[in-house]
Design a protein that fits this description.
The chain contains seven helices and no strands. With about 230 residues, it is mostly helical. It is rod-shaped.
């Protein structure tokens, strides 16, 4: 279904410019040269090689313009689309148009026959490249998803590493503060200042119980201080 969808999308991009350019040329020709009326049925047999070349050239230019626009849309939607893959998708649609113009300008039957054989060989090869490009596009999609998952995993690992580093730094600071408090209490005990040591210990325990990371309400802290 994906192959058919992509194929018909590009086919419409080729058919629409051909219909538009041919209709515009017929309308302008019949407006300025009403004595020699062109219709879609007699256009190829009635127009000169120069006129046919102008029609095909405008068709190719408009088709390339539409393909360029659709390529911009595809580039915005498909981040993993490569230029080579995109050209392989376009080859079955661009090559026959150029070959048709070259064949239509030939007068010798031998040249027309040789170019017709080359035409079918190039068409078959280009369609094989088209199928290869579709498979390559699926592979690129899988690689893109894999890289995206790797990037997300790496971001998660970095965030976890930063969080662990912050927690480790906080724990080291907490251990350092506790060590200082113990040294202060031991100093007061050595100085036989037991009441001051008891008051200091109670104050430290109260602050530890009311730490912000434990998210205790202020009224609970004040209640503990009263006890």
């Amino acid at each position: 279904m994906k192959k058919l969808a992509v194929y018909f999308i590009f086919q419409l991009l080729i058919i629409c410019p051909e219909i538009l350019c041919t209709s515009v040329f017929i309308a302008l020709h019949n407006l300025f040269i009403p004595t020699d009326t062109y219709t879609p049925h007699n256009l190829i047999s009635s127009c000169s090689p120069a006129e046919y070349f102008v029609i095909e050239l405008s068709n190719i230019l408009l088709g390339l313009f539409l393909l360029w626009k659709i390529s911009e849309i595809l580039r915005q939607c498909i981040d993993y689309l490569k230029i080579l893959t995109f050209l392989q998708l376009l080859l079955p649609l661009i090559a026959p148009v150029f070959l048709n113009v070259i064949i239509s300008l030939q007068k010798k039957p031998e040249a027309v026959l040789a170019l017709s054989i080359i035409y079918w060989i190039i068409c078959i090869d280009s369609y094989l490249l088209f199928l290869r490009a579709v498979r390559s596009l699926a592979q690129q999609h899988r690689e893109y998803l894999q890289k995206k998952m790797e990037i997300e995993l790496m971001k998660k690992q970095i965030n976890d590493s930063v969080q662990l580093s912050n927690e480790y730094a906080s724990l080291r600071k907490w251990n350092h503060d506790i060590e200082n408090h113990i040294m202060s209490v031991m100093y007061l005990m050595d100085m036989k200042k037991y009441e001051e040591a008891e008051t200091y210990t109670a104050s430290v325990l109260s602050r530890l119980n009311c730490r912000p990371q434990e998210k205790q309400p202020e009224e609970d802290c004040s209640h503990e201080k009263e006890h």
